[in-house]
Write a structure and sequence with these properties.
By secondary structure, the protein is α/β, with parallel strands linked by helices. It contains 14 helices and twelve strands. β9 and β10 form a beta hairpin. α9 packs across α10. The radius of gyration is 22 Å and the shape is globular.
C-alpha cells in the first residue's frame, strides 16, 4: 500500500482530533470500560458516537499515533483495503483502532472477528447503526465483545451542553423520593421551564448547535439517511421498501400516539402483516419510532405493538405541523425512561416502569382520578417547577442519565 495514500487517512484523523472539543462529554463515556479488547458502540444516527470515540482518543493518548480512527463510509475504501491499513498501523507501533460506521463495510462482523483473532495485542473499538444485530452466525462476536448503546441527549445533558449547568444523574427511586428537594435546588439556579421547552423542540441531537435555524431540515435529512442508507447497509431491502418506510413514518407522525389498526395501515402501505411488522421494528431500531407493548418484546417473533410513538419529541416537531402537547409529554417521558428502565403499557395509567411504578403524564391541572388508589402510582406533571407528594414535574424525568 502506498504510504502517501495512508498519510491521507492519518491527516484526516488528526484534523478531526484537533477539532474535537472536550468541553462536554456524554453520559456513556464513564460507563465504558475502555480497557476491553473489543468494544462496540451502537446508536441512532446523529446522537454523537463519532465525537465520543474522538474524545476518548484525545483524552487518553499522549501519542496519537498509537491510535487510528477511520470512518468506513470514506470513499477511500472503495479502492483500498482496510486490512492492509490496519496491518500498516500495527506494524508501525499502533495499539488501538477505532472503526466508525462499521456497518458500511461488507461482512463487517467477519472482519471484526478476524482482526480480533489476527492481532491479539490490538484493541478495537467500533461504532455502528442502532439497527445492527449482533448474531452468532456472522462471526460469532457475541462472546468476544462488550456492546454499549448511546442514546440521544437527556434533558440533564442538555442543561450542561447548552447552559453549562452541571446536574448529577439520579436513579428513578431517588427521584421519586427526593424530587421536591432536588427541584428546589435546581430551579433556584435557572429558569427550568423555558429550557425544557427548548429541549423538547431541538435538544435531543447534539448537532442542533451546528445548525441554528436549519435544525428541522437537518433532522429530516438524518431521517432520510437512516432509511435510505443505514437500513440497506444492515438488511437486504429494496428501493420500494425504503419508500414505504418513509410513507409509514409520515403516516404515523400525523397520528401518534397511535393505537394501531394494523390492517388499515398495511392497506395504506400496500403491504402484508409480516412486511408491515418488519418495517415498524426497523424504524424503531433506527431510532425513529418507539413501540410500546404490555409485555417484553421478542424481536425473533414480531408482534403488533400496543401503542406507537415517535422516538423523541424533536422528531415530532420536525415531521408534523400539528403537534399535540399531550403526545409531546408522553413521548418525552417514554424516551427518557426507556434508556435505563423497562417501560410497558399498563391496563390503567399511561406507563408502567419495571413492572412496579405506574405513571400518568398530564398537564398541571390534572388529578390522580384514574390511578389514585393504586400503590406506587405517580403523576408526571408538565408546566410545573416543583411538585409535591406523588406529583412530580415532568422535566425531572430527564435527569436519569
Amino acid at each position: 500500500m502506498d504510504e502517501k495514500d495512508i498519510e491521507r487517512i492519518y491527516r484526516s484523523f488528526h484534523r478531526k482530533l484537533q477539532d474535537t472539543s472536550l468541553d462536554f462529554i456524554r453520559y456513556l463515556y464513564k460507563r465504558i470500560n475502555w480497557e476491553d479488547r473489543l468494544i462496540g458502540i451502537k446508536g441512532a444516527r446523529g446522537v454523537g458516537k463519532t465525537t465520543l470515540i474522538l474524545q476518548h482518543i484525545k483524552r487518553s493518548f499522549p501519542n496519537p499515533d498509537a491510535a487510528l480512527y477511520v470512518s468506513l463510509d470514506n470513499l477511500w475504501f472503495m479502492t483500498h483495503s482496510l486490512e492492509d491499513l490496519i496491518e500498516y498501523h500495527y506494524t508501525h507501533g499502533g495499539t488501538h483502532v477505532f472503526l466508525d460506521e462499521v456497518h458500511r463495510y461488507p461482512q463487517w462482523q467477519t472482519l471484526i472477528k478476524n482482526l480480533n483473532d489476527d492481532y491479539p495485542n490490538l484493541r478495537i473499538v467500533y461504532t455502528g447503526s442502532s439497527m445492527l444485530e449482533i448474531e452468532n452466525r456472522q462471526g460469532d462476536l457475541s462472546r468476544r465483545q462488550i456492546v454499549y448503546q448511546l442514546a440521544g441527549l437527556s434533558f440533564r445533558e442538555f442543561l450542561d451542553f447548552e447552559y453549562g449547568m452541571k446536574v448529577p444523574t439520579y436513579t428513578l427511586e431517588e427521584l421519586l423520593q427526593q424530587h421536591v428537594s432536588i427541584a428546589m435546588q435546581l430551579v433556584g439556579q435557572m429558569k427550568i421551564l423555558p429550557a425544557f421547552e427548548k429541549y423538547l423542540r431541538k435538544g435531543h441531537y447534539p448537532f442542533y448547535k451546528e445548525t441554528h435555524e436549519g435544525f428541522e431540515f437537518r433532522l429530516q435529512e438524518v431521517i432520510r439517511q437512516v432509511i435510505e442508507s443505514d437500513l440497506p447497509a444492515v438488511e437486504d431491502v429494496q428501493y420500494v421498501t425504503t419508500q414505504k418506510l418513509k410513507k409509514m413514518l409520515m403516516i404515523l407522525a400525523e397520528r401518534v400516539p397511535h393505537t394501531p389498526n394494523m390492517s388499515e395501515l398495511y392497506k395504506e402501505l400496500e403491504t402484508n402483516r409480516e412486511q408491515g411488522l418488519k418495517m415498524l421494528y426497523a424504524l424503531e431500531r433506527g431510532g425513529l419510532l418507539a413501540l410500546l407493548n404490555n409485555q417484553i418484546k421478542n424481536y425473533k417473533s414480531l408482534s403488533r405493538p400496543n401503542k406507537i410513538y415517535l422516538d423523541n419529541t424533536n422528531l415530532m416537531y420536525a415531521l408534523s405541523a400539528n403537534t399535540d402537547i399531550g403526545t409531546v409529554r408522553e413521548c418525552f417521558f417514554n424516551n427518557q425512561l426507556k434508556v435505563l428502565y423497562e417501560v410497558f403499557l399498563p391496563m390503567q395509567g399511561d406507563f408502567e416502569v419495571n413492572r412496579k411504578y405506574l405513571f400518568e403524564v398530564r398537564g398541571r391541572t390534572k388529578t390522580f382520578q384514574q390511578i389514585k388508589d393504586i400503590p406506587d402510582s405517580y403523576l408526571a406533571v408538565d408546566n410545573t417547577e416543583v411538585g409535591h407528594h406523588n406529583r412530580i414535574p415532568l422535566w425531572m424525568f430527564g435527569l436519569l442519565y
